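Hi V.,

You were right to ask for the full record rather than a summary. Here it is.
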Amino acid sequence: MRRSVFLAATCSAWLMMAQGTAHATASNKELEAQANELAARLAAVERANQTLVQMQQQIESGRQELRTLRGQLDEAKHELDSIRQQQRDLYSDIDRRLLLIENGAQPMTPGTAQPVPTEAEIRSVDEASVYGDSFAALKASRYEEAARGFQLYLTKYPDGPRADNATYWLGEAYYVQKDYDAALAAFQDVLKKFPDSRKASDALLKTAYCQYELKAYQNARKTLESVVKVYPGTDASRLAEQRLTKLEAEGH
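Predicted structure:
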């Protein structure tokens, strides 16, 4: 009798242990499945975050390209405005030249002599002609010819009424030919010899551009900061700020 009871108790204990083991095994599998599911979700989140980072980088790159394009557009607009102003100056010069020629070619009346243009008038016509021909070559993209013409003007008329403009446009002729050393010297001459010229702000800006192209980035930064400080609210100042942003983006 006792032996039967003992066997029954033993069997019951083993049965309970087996059930507990089975239950524990089932719980472990469930936990493992949950852990795997969580790991899969985390991996999906990480992939999504990586995609978002890539998209953000692409957006920022696009914004930078847009800023660069806007800067180039502003530069082109600024140059166009300068050329238009120079064109108006040239037309005014031509009008004065025609007026001189007309005055010098009036028909003689009885008892009067043909008026002879004075040396100053002849000099004025020649000065305007040299400048006008040089600027026409610049507009026509004949940059070497333009550079020679402006050099001739400055040799003949170093103190002429257009000497500051001639010096500036000489720098431009060099700049578009990527002769940045010569362009830098010309723009600095504008600032040194004609500090009150209306071309001074543009010359200071282009000085910075030359320094940038010559990889003198610290000098370029200082010059651009001077443009912003000395000529606030101008086109030159706005372009200087854009070039400063470009320097920052490039890590210079």
